[in-house]
Amino acid sequence: MNYRLGIPGMSWLLTVLALAACSTPSEPDQPGPLPVHDGSLRTAAIDYEVGDLSAPEVMAKYARVDLLIVQPWRFWDREIYAGDLDLIRAANPGVRIVAYLRPFNVRAVWRETAGRYTGALWDVCSPHLVRTVNGDTASVWPGSYVYNLLDPAVRADVLDVFAAYQGTGGNTFDGVFWDNFCTKLWGADDPNLNDGEIDLDGNGVGHFSDPDEIAAMHRAQEAWVRELRARFGEGFIQIANGDRALVDSTFAATVDGMFYEGFPTVGFPGDNTCYAALDPDRFNNLFAASRWPRTRNGGPWAIPTFIRNVGGFVDQTGTYRPTNTGDFLRALCLLTGATSLHTDLSGHPRAGIPAVELDLGLPLGPTEITGNLYRRTFAGGTVEVILDTGVWPTPFSFTIRGTDGRNIQKIDAPYAYP
Is 359 exposed, middle or buried (0-12, 13-18, 19+ CB in 10 A)? Predict the structure, then answer.
Protein backbone atom coordinates (compact mmCIF):
# COMPACT_ATOMS: atom_id res chain seq x y z
CA MET A 1 0.00 0.00 0.00
CA ASN A 2 1.34 3.46 -0.87
CA TYR A 3 0.55 6.01 1.84
CA ARG A 4 1.57 9.65 1.94
CA LEU A 5 4.70 10.09 4.05
CA GLY A 6 3.76 13.51 5.46
CA ILE A 7 3.13 13.83 9.19
CA PRO A 8 -0.65 14.40 8.84
CA GLY A 9 -0.94 11.36 6.59
CA MET A 10 1.09 9.22 8.95
CA SER A 11 -0.99 10.28 11.94
CA TRP A 12 -4.17 9.33 10.13
CA LEU A 13 -2.68 5.97 9.19
CA LEU A 14 -1.63 5.26 12.78
CA THR A 15 -5.09 6.23 13.98
CA VAL A 16 -6.74 3.85 11.54
CA LEU A 17 -4.49 0.98 12.55
CA ALA A 18 -5.07 1.64 16.25
CA LEU A 19 -8.82 1.78 15.80
CA ALA A 20 -8.78 -1.35 13.68
CA ALA A 21 -7.10 -3.22 16.50
CA CYS A 22 -10.05 -2.63 18.81
CA SER A 23 -12.88 -2.14 16.32
CA THR A 24 -15.90 -4.29 15.71
CA PRO A 25 -14.93 -7.71 14.28
CA SER A 26 -15.13 -8.04 10.51
CA GLU A 27 -18.17 -10.30 10.85
CA PRO A 28 -19.97 -8.99 13.96
CA ASP A 29 -23.02 -10.56 15.46
CA GLN A 30 -26.06 -9.24 13.66
CA PRO A 31 -29.58 -8.69 14.91
CA GLY A 32 -32.31 -10.77 13.37
CA PRO A 33 -33.96 -9.66 10.14
CA LEU A 34 -36.23 -6.64 10.30
CA PRO A 35 -39.93 -7.21 9.62
CA VAL A 36 -40.72 -7.43 5.93
CA HIS A 37 -42.37 -4.28 4.62
CA ASP A 38 -46.11 -4.72 5.22
CA GLY A 39 -47.32 -2.16 2.68
CA SER A 40 -47.98 0.74 5.03
CA LEU A 41 -46.24 4.03 4.26
CA ARG A 42 -42.66 4.17 5.46
CA THR A 43 -40.53 7.30 5.58
CA ALA A 44 -36.88 8.11 5.04
CA ALA A 45 -34.76 11.21 5.49
CA ILE A 46 -31.49 12.31 3.93
CA ASP A 47 -29.51 15.03 5.66
CA TYR A 48 -25.97 16.08 4.79
CA GLU A 49 -25.98 18.86 7.39
CA VAL A 50 -27.38 17.33 10.56
CA GLY A 51 -28.08 20.18 12.95
CA ASP A 52 -28.04 20.63 16.71
CA LEU A 53 -29.66 17.49 18.08
CA SER A 54 -30.40 19.20 21.39
CA ALA A 55 -32.92 21.39 19.56
CA PRO A 56 -36.39 19.77 19.58
CA GLU A 57 -37.24 21.13 16.13
CA VAL A 58 -34.10 19.52 14.70
CA MET A 59 -34.57 16.18 16.44
CA ALA A 60 -38.20 16.10 15.28
CA LYS A 61 -37.00 15.63 11.69
CA TYR A 62 -35.25 12.38 12.60
CA ALA A 63 -37.58 11.08 15.31
CA ARG A 64 -40.32 10.35 12.76
CA VAL A 65 -38.46 8.34 10.08
CA ASP A 66 -37.76 4.66 9.51
CA LEU A 67 -34.49 5.19 7.61
CA LEU A 68 -31.96 8.03 7.91
CA ILE A 69 -29.11 8.72 5.47
CA VAL A 70 -26.24 10.90 6.74
CA GLN A 71 -22.59 11.61 6.01
CA PRO A 72 -20.39 9.64 8.42
CA TRP A 73 -17.66 12.27 8.72
CA ARG A 74 -20.15 14.50 10.53
CA PHE A 75 -20.03 11.95 13.37
CA TRP A 76 -16.56 10.38 13.08
CA ASP A 77 -14.27 13.31 12.36
CA ARG A 78 -14.83 15.39 15.50
CA GLU A 79 -15.12 14.28 19.11
CA ILE A 80 -17.83 16.84 19.89
CA TYR A 81 -20.28 14.66 17.95
CA ALA A 82 -19.62 11.54 20.02
CA GLY A 83 -22.82 9.68 20.81
CA ASP A 84 -25.00 11.76 18.48
CA LEU A 85 -26.38 8.72 16.69
CA ASP A 86 -27.39 7.28 20.04
CA LEU A 87 -29.36 10.46 20.72
CA ILE A 88 -31.32 9.87 17.52
CA ARG A 89 -31.91 6.24 18.41
CA ALA A 90 -33.08 7.19 21.88
CA ALA A 91 -35.72 9.44 20.33
CA ASN A 92 -36.53 6.89 17.62
CA PRO A 93 -35.61 3.32 18.66
CA GLY A 94 -36.82 1.81 15.38
CA VAL A 95 -34.74 4.00 13.06
CA ARG A 96 -32.04 2.52 10.84
CA ILE A 97 -29.15 4.92 10.16
CA VAL A 98 -26.99 4.43 7.08
CA ALA A 99 -23.74 6.14 6.13
CA TYR A 100 -22.99 7.86 2.83
CA LEU A 101 -20.06 6.10 1.14
CA ARG A 102 -18.36 7.05 -2.14
CA PRO A 103 -17.55 3.93 -4.19
CA PHE A 104 -15.28 5.64 -6.76
CA ASN A 105 -14.36 9.21 -5.81
CA VAL A 106 -12.66 11.11 -3.01
CA ARG A 107 -12.77 14.82 -2.14
CA ALA A 108 -9.66 16.93 -2.70
CA VAL A 109 -10.27 18.96 0.46
CA TRP A 110 -9.68 15.83 2.51
CA ARG A 111 -6.01 16.05 1.55
CA GLU A 112 -5.24 18.93 3.91
CA THR A 113 -8.25 20.00 5.99
CA ALA A 114 -9.94 16.69 6.67
CA GLY A 115 -10.73 15.08 9.98
CA ARG A 116 -9.68 11.63 11.09
CA TYR A 117 -11.95 9.46 8.94
CA THR A 118 -11.90 11.59 5.81
CA GLY A 119 -8.15 12.05 6.03
CA ALA A 120 -7.69 8.30 6.24
CA LEU A 121 -9.86 7.88 3.14
CA TRP A 122 -7.68 10.36 1.25
CA ASP A 123 -4.56 8.47 2.28
CA VAL A 124 -5.76 5.11 0.93
CA CYS A 125 -7.42 6.47 -2.24
CA SER A 126 -5.04 9.19 -3.42
CA PRO A 127 -2.23 6.84 -4.57
CA HIS A 128 -4.74 5.24 -6.95
CA LEU A 129 -6.31 8.20 -8.74
CA VAL A 130 -7.54 7.58 -12.28
CA ARG A 131 -6.50 9.57 -15.37
CA THR A 132 -8.28 10.60 -18.53
CA VAL A 133 -7.14 9.52 -21.97
CA ASN A 134 -5.16 12.80 -22.13
CA GLY A 135 -3.48 12.24 -18.75
CA ASP A 136 -5.62 14.63 -16.71
CA THR A 137 -6.54 13.67 -13.14
CA ALA A 138 -10.09 12.37 -13.51
CA SER A 139 -13.03 14.04 -11.78
CA VAL A 140 -16.79 13.56 -11.76
CA TRP A 141 -17.59 16.46 -9.44
CA PRO A 142 -15.81 19.78 -8.77
CA GLY A 143 -13.25 19.29 -6.05
CA SER A 144 -13.23 15.50 -6.21
CA TYR A 145 -11.11 12.84 -7.89
CA VAL A 146 -11.89 9.35 -9.18
CA TYR A 147 -10.01 6.45 -7.63
CA ASN A 148 -9.60 3.00 -9.13
CA LEU A 149 -12.57 0.99 -7.88
CA LEU A 150 -11.59 -1.81 -10.30
CA ASP A 151 -8.69 -2.75 -8.01
CA PRO A 152 -9.77 -5.17 -5.22
CA ALA A 153 -6.92 -3.93 -3.00
CA VAL A 154 -8.20 -0.35 -3.17
CA ARG A 155 -11.73 -1.46 -2.30
CA ALA A 156 -10.34 -3.43 0.64
CA ASP A 157 -8.43 -0.37 1.86
CA VAL A 158 -11.58 1.78 1.78
CA LEU A 159 -13.53 -0.83 3.73
CA ASP A 160 -10.64 -1.12 6.20
CA VAL A 161 -11.02 2.58 6.94
CA PHE A 162 -14.79 2.33 7.28
CA ALA A 163 -14.49 -0.70 9.57
CA ALA A 164 -11.84 1.01 11.70
CA TYR A 165 -14.06 4.01 12.37
CA GLN A 166 -17.35 2.13 12.78
CA GLY A 167 -18.36 2.75 16.37
CA THR A 168 -16.00 5.71 16.87
CA GLY A 169 -17.35 7.91 19.63
CA GLY A 170 -20.22 5.50 20.02
CA ASN A 171 -21.48 6.37 16.53
CA THR A 172 -22.31 3.08 14.83
CA PHE A 173 -24.12 2.76 11.50
CA ASP A 174 -26.66 0.15 10.39
CA GLY A 175 -25.63 0.23 6.74
CA VAL A 176 -24.34 2.31 3.85
CA PHE A 177 -25.73 4.50 1.10
CA TRP A 178 -23.60 3.95 -2.00
CA ASP A 179 -23.24 7.17 -4.02
CA ASN A 180 -23.38 5.99 -6.68
CA PHE A 181 -23.66 2.80 -8.73
CA CYS A 182 -24.26 3.75 -12.35
CA THR A 183 -24.64 1.89 -15.63
CA LYS A 184 -21.91 4.11 -17.09
CA LEU A 185 -19.55 6.30 -15.09
CA TRP A 186 -21.42 9.47 -14.31
CA GLY A 187 -19.63 12.61 -15.55
CA ALA A 188 -16.94 10.65 -17.38
CA ASP A 189 -17.04 12.91 -20.44
CA ASP A 190 -17.73 16.29 -18.80
CA PRO A 191 -15.41 18.80 -20.56
CA ASN A 192 -15.83 21.26 -17.68
CA LEU A 193 -14.15 18.78 -15.35
CA ASN A 194 -11.77 16.75 -17.48
CA ASP A 195 -9.34 17.10 -20.35
CA GLY A 196 -10.43 14.04 -22.27
CA GLU A 197 -12.69 11.17 -21.34
CA ILE A 198 -12.07 9.22 -18.14
CA ASP A 199 -10.16 5.95 -18.59
CA LEU A 200 -10.71 3.71 -15.56
CA ASP A 201 -8.62 0.77 -16.75
CA GLY A 202 -5.81 2.89 -18.22
CA ASN A 203 -5.82 1.26 -21.66
CA GLY A 204 -6.05 4.54 -23.57
CA VAL A 205 -9.69 4.07 -24.57
CA GLY A 206 -12.31 6.44 -23.15
CA HIS A 207 -14.92 5.01 -20.82
CA PHE A 208 -17.94 5.29 -23.11
CA SER A 209 -16.06 3.66 -25.99
CA ASP A 210 -14.78 0.76 -23.91
CA PRO A 211 -17.43 -1.92 -23.26
CA ASP A 212 -14.88 -4.06 -21.42
CA GLU A 213 -14.23 -1.22 -18.98
CA ILE A 214 -17.93 -0.67 -18.42
CA ALA A 215 -18.38 -4.40 -17.76
CA ALA A 216 -15.43 -4.32 -15.35
CA MET A 217 -17.01 -1.39 -13.51
CA HIS A 218 -20.25 -3.38 -13.17
CA ARG A 219 -18.31 -6.31 -11.72
CA ALA A 220 -16.58 -3.96 -9.29
CA GLN A 221 -19.96 -2.63 -8.11
CA GLU A 222 -21.17 -6.17 -7.51
CA ALA A 223 -17.93 -6.90 -5.66
CA TRP A 224 -18.44 -3.84 -3.44
CA VAL A 225 -21.80 -5.26 -2.32
CA ARG A 226 -20.37 -8.71 -1.62
CA GLU A 227 -17.26 -7.39 0.11
CA LEU A 228 -19.19 -5.05 2.40
CA ARG A 229 -21.60 -7.85 3.31
CA ALA A 230 -18.68 -10.15 4.07
CA ARG A 231 -17.33 -7.53 6.49
CA PHE A 232 -20.55 -6.60 8.27
CA GLY A 233 -22.95 -9.47 7.71
CA GLU A 234 -26.33 -10.00 6.12
CA GLY A 235 -28.00 -7.55 8.48
CA PHE A 236 -26.02 -4.55 7.24
CA ILE A 237 -28.27 -2.42 5.01
CA GLN A 238 -27.09 -1.37 1.55
CA ILE A 239 -28.92 1.35 -0.40
CA ALA A 240 -27.78 1.99 -3.99
CA ASN A 241 -27.97 5.47 -5.47
CA GLY A 242 -27.46 5.83 -9.23
CA ASP A 243 -29.33 4.43 -12.20
CA ARG A 244 -28.09 0.84 -12.26
CA ALA A 245 -30.42 -0.62 -9.63
CA LEU A 246 -33.31 1.29 -11.23
CA VAL A 247 -32.95 -0.54 -14.55
CA ASP A 248 -31.23 -3.82 -13.58
CA SER A 249 -33.49 -6.03 -11.48
CA THR A 250 -30.75 -8.63 -10.96
CA PHE A 251 -28.41 -6.08 -9.45
CA ALA A 252 -31.22 -4.49 -7.43
CA ALA A 253 -31.95 -7.90 -5.90
CA THR A 254 -28.48 -7.90 -4.29
CA VAL A 255 -29.09 -4.69 -2.28
CA ASP A 256 -31.72 -3.65 0.23
CA GLY A 257 -32.96 -0.59 -1.59
CA MET A 258 -32.34 2.07 -4.20
CA PHE A 259 -32.48 5.84 -4.33
CA TYR A 260 -34.11 7.67 -7.25
CA GLU A 261 -32.17 10.94 -7.19
CA GLY A 262 -33.88 13.47 -9.43
CA PHE A 263 -36.98 11.32 -9.91
CA PRO A 264 -38.10 10.64 -12.60
CA THR A 265 -35.15 11.94 -14.64
CA VAL A 266 -32.92 9.08 -13.46
CA GLY A 267 -34.04 5.61 -14.47
CA PHE A 268 -36.69 6.84 -16.89
CA PRO A 269 -34.98 8.62 -19.81
CA GLY A 270 -37.16 10.54 -22.18
CA ASP A 271 -39.42 13.50 -21.58
CA ASN A 272 -38.71 13.73 -17.80
CA THR A 273 -42.30 13.21 -16.75
CA CYS A 274 -43.85 10.79 -14.28
CA TYR A 275 -45.64 8.85 -17.03
CA ALA A 276 -42.98 6.18 -17.57
CA ALA A 277 -42.54 5.60 -13.86
CA LEU A 278 -46.25 4.88 -13.42
CA ASP A 279 -46.75 2.95 -16.67
CA PRO A 280 -47.58 -0.63 -15.61
CA ASP A 281 -46.36 -1.89 -19.00
CA ARG A 282 -42.86 -0.45 -18.56
CA PHE A 283 -40.39 -3.03 -17.25
CA ASN A 284 -39.01 -0.85 -14.46
CA ASN A 285 -42.15 1.02 -13.46
CA LEU A 286 -42.23 2.07 -9.83
CA PHE A 287 -44.86 -0.55 -8.96
CA ALA A 288 -42.52 -3.33 -10.10
CA ALA A 289 -39.07 -1.92 -9.31
CA SER A 290 -39.96 -0.93 -5.77
CA ARG A 291 -40.20 -4.68 -5.05
CA TRP A 292 -36.88 -5.68 -6.64
CA PRO A 293 -34.50 -5.25 -3.64
CA ARG A 294 -34.04 -7.64 -0.73
CA THR A 295 -36.58 -7.90 2.04
CA ARG A 296 -34.36 -9.17 4.86
CA ASN A 297 -33.50 -5.79 6.35
CA GLY A 298 -36.96 -4.28 6.34
CA GLY A 299 -36.78 -3.70 2.60
CA PRO A 300 -37.38 -3.14 -0.09
CA TRP A 301 -36.37 0.50 0.45
CA ALA A 302 -37.15 2.18 -2.88
CA ILE A 303 -36.82 5.94 -2.33
CA PRO A 304 -37.84 8.44 -5.04
CA THR A 305 -36.89 12.09 -4.54
CA PHE A 306 -36.52 15.34 -6.43
CA ILE A 307 -34.69 17.46 -3.88
CA ARG A 308 -33.61 20.40 -6.01
CA ASN A 309 -36.89 21.28 -7.68
CA VAL A 310 -38.46 23.99 -5.53
CA GLY A 311 -41.42 25.80 -7.08
CA GLY A 312 -44.84 27.01 -6.12
CA PHE A 313 -48.16 28.51 -7.13
CA VAL A 314 -50.75 31.01 -5.93
CA ASP A 315 -53.70 29.14 -4.43
CA GLN A 316 -57.41 29.92 -4.39
CA THR A 317 -56.99 32.33 -1.46
CA GLY A 318 -54.26 34.34 -3.18
CA THR A 319 -51.57 32.80 -0.98
CA TYR A 320 -48.29 31.68 -2.52
CA ARG A 321 -47.68 28.02 -1.73
CA PRO A 322 -44.18 26.60 -2.15
CA THR A 323 -44.47 23.09 -3.58
CA ASN A 324 -42.52 20.50 -1.69
CA THR A 325 -41.94 17.60 -4.06
CA GLY A 326 -42.10 15.31 -1.05
CA ASP A 327 -45.87 15.89 -0.88
CA PHE A 328 -46.33 14.64 -4.44
CA LEU A 329 -43.90 11.77 -4.12
CA ARG A 330 -45.61 10.65 -0.93
CA ALA A 331 -48.79 10.13 -2.92
CA LEU A 332 -46.85 8.01 -5.42
CA CYS A 333 -45.28 6.01 -2.60
CA LEU A 334 -48.71 5.20 -1.22
CA LEU A 335 -49.72 3.94 -4.65
CA THR A 336 -46.58 1.91 -5.32
CA GLY A 337 -45.26 0.78 -1.93
CA ALA A 338 -42.12 2.87 -2.25
CA THR A 339 -40.54 4.73 0.69
CA SER A 340 -41.44 8.39 1.17
CA LEU A 341 -38.69 10.97 1.64
CA HIS A 342 -39.51 14.52 2.68
CA THR A 343 -36.96 17.34 2.45
CA ASP A 344 -37.08 20.99 3.42
CA LEU A 345 -37.44 23.75 0.82
CA SER A 346 -33.72 24.62 0.66
CA GLY A 347 -33.10 22.71 -2.55
CA HIS A 348 -30.37 20.72 -0.80
CA PRO A 349 -30.23 17.24 0.78
CA ARG A 350 -31.71 18.22 4.13
CA ALA A 351 -34.46 16.52 6.08
CA GLY A 352 -37.84 18.20 6.42
CA ILE A 353 -41.18 17.59 8.06
CA PRO A 354 -44.36 17.48 5.96
CA ALA A 355 -47.04 20.02 6.79
CA VAL A 356 -49.53 17.15 6.90
CA GLU A 357 -48.54 13.86 8.53
CA LEU A 358 -50.20 10.67 7.31
CA ASP A 359 -51.14 7.40 8.94
CA LEU A 360 -53.39 5.47 6.57
CA GLY A 361 -52.46 2.02 7.83
CA LEU A 362 -52.30 -1.03 5.60
CA PRO A 363 -53.52 -1.10 1.99
CA LEU A 364 -56.70 -3.06 1.36
CA GLY A 365 -55.67 -3.95 -2.18
CA PRO A 366 -53.49 -2.93 -5.14
CA THR A 367 -53.71 0.37 -6.98
CA GLU A 368 -56.58 0.61 -9.44
CA ILE A 369 -55.74 2.37 -12.71
CA THR A 370 -58.41 3.86 -14.94
CA GLY A 371 -56.93 6.01 -17.68
CA ASN A 372 -54.89 8.68 -15.91
CA LEU A 373 -56.61 8.08 -12.55
CA TYR A 374 -54.69 6.03 -9.97
CA ARG A 375 -56.56 5.04 -6.83
CA ARG A 376 -55.69 2.93 -3.78
CA THR A 377 -57.67 2.21 -0.65
CA PHE A 378 -56.12 1.84 2.81
CA ALA A 379 -57.57 0.94 6.18
CA GLY A 380 -57.46 4.62 7.10
CA GLY A 381 -58.44 6.30 3.84
CA THR A 382 -57.87 6.55 0.10
CA VAL A 383 -55.30 8.07 -2.24
CA GLU A 384 -56.18 9.36 -5.69
CA VAL A 385 -53.72 10.70 -8.27
CA ILE A 386 -54.75 12.25 -11.57
CA LEU A 387 -51.69 12.29 -13.80
CA ASP A 388 -51.80 15.22 -16.20
CA THR A 389 -48.60 17.07 -17.21
CA GLY A 390 -46.28 14.82 -15.22
CA VAL A 391 -43.85 17.76 -14.98
CA TRP A 392 -42.58 19.43 -11.80
CA PRO A 393 -43.37 21.44 -9.74
CA THR A 394 -46.99 20.17 -9.96
CA PRO A 395 -46.76 16.98 -12.02
CA PHE A 396 -50.25 15.79 -11.08
CA SER A 397 -53.13 16.48 -8.77
CA PHE A 398 -53.73 14.29 -5.77
CA THR A 399 -56.28 13.82 -3.02
CA ILE A 400 -55.81 11.93 0.23
CA ARG A 401 -59.06 11.36 2.12
CA GLY A 402 -59.87 9.81 5.46
CA THR A 403 -62.46 7.11 5.95
CA ASP A 404 -64.97 9.85 6.80
CA GLY A 405 -64.58 11.30 3.30
CA ARG A 406 -62.84 14.47 4.46
CA ASN A 407 -59.71 15.67 2.70
CA ILE A 408 -56.53 15.06 4.66
CA GLN A 409 -54.46 16.67 1.92
CA LYS A 410 -55.39 17.82 -1.58
CA ILE A 411 -53.37 19.67 -4.20
CA ASP A 412 -55.00 20.46 -7.55
CA ALA A 413 -53.22 23.69 -8.44
CA PRO A 414 -54.30 26.39 -7.96
CA TYR A 415 -56.53 24.70 -5.37
CA ALA A 416 -54.96 23.24 -2.27
CA TYR A 417 -56.32 21.92 1.03
CA PRO A 418 -55.66 22.19 3.90
Answer: exposed
